[in-house]
Request: fold
Amino acid sequence: MLKKRIGILTSGGDCPGLNAAIRSLGKTAILRHDFEVVGFLSGFAGLINNEYIILDEDKLSGILTLGGTILGTSREKPFKKYESESEKVDSKPELIKKNYESLGLECLICIGGNGTQKTAHKLSKMGLNVIGLPKTIDNDIWGTDITFGFDSAVSIATEAIDRLHTTANSHRRIMVVEVMGHHAGWLALYAGIASGGDVILLPEIPYTLETIADYLENRFRRRKPYSIVVVAEGISIPESLREKYYSPAHYIADSIQKLTGLECRETVLGYVQRGGTPTAFDRILATRLGSYAIELITKRKFNRMVCVKDGHIDSVKLDEVSGRLKLVDPDHPMIEEARALGTCFGNENRR
Ligand code: F6P
Reply:
């Protein structure tokens, strides 16, 4: 009897924990259910071009602690219309459906962020059986309390900001550090609090330069030797100034120095936040989500995204997740707790 066959792919920005998820769902599928596992290369591009490897125990061995993804990833968006697509050839979604059907897949597991879950949902509307597995360092996927990749990125950013404290103190400087988080400020909030940031700027909370400058001058007057400003890459900066500054951190540092006369320097952490081995938390979360995804398939509960809900592994309809972002609520308790410690979020009215 032919083995049941499932397909998996990793799509979007990579992050620590992807290989832990691949390992878990692959081993659960092979060892417990005797499935054959097809690993598509470079995200949806591999599915469009029918480029894949067969994942067996050997390929899944030794990857738990490995950063990145053994399958590779891409930001291919199959449903995004391109002028060059002539009507005559099959569209990308049609190619996906053809390859899915010719391989006789039982289900396709899409490991990725918001864009990936949206694509997975659209493929389910074409009749494919899909399961979404949420992944992103941004932690901005609606429908799950947390995503793997986030804890690792918070740890990496925190360790980096800890180092900025010592050099800021030596030079009596203000250090502005930019963390990732295109739409949501979860990384800046968590890493900012964990690393003792004095100012934390989130996309969700509008700030004024004057508020920040007043706060930092006040610290200077109180003989604080240095300050740490943590900003999310997604904070707003004046459109007219985007050309002048290479990043939001550069804009904030330059503006604060001009307003206060205090010496500022900026650091953009960038892709280091997505690299290297996952934390233990992310290894465990990715492992649990991976095996749960396989269990959903055996129960034929398709077109859902596995998730964490109130601390439990669960699933939610892709219908409900697609196109929605989980942003930081300005009334989040962690913000009030940080304010109580004297942290500035850029919108306080000077008392
Ligand atoms: O979505 C995760 C993320 O790291 C964002 O925080 C960041 O803005 C984006 O990916 C960078 O995208 P790319 O890897 O395509 O440059």
Q: What stands out?
A: Residues 13, 75, 113, 136-138, 180-182, 233, 274 surround 6-O-phosphono-beta-D-fructofuranose (CB under 6 Å). The first helix runs from residue 18 to 33.
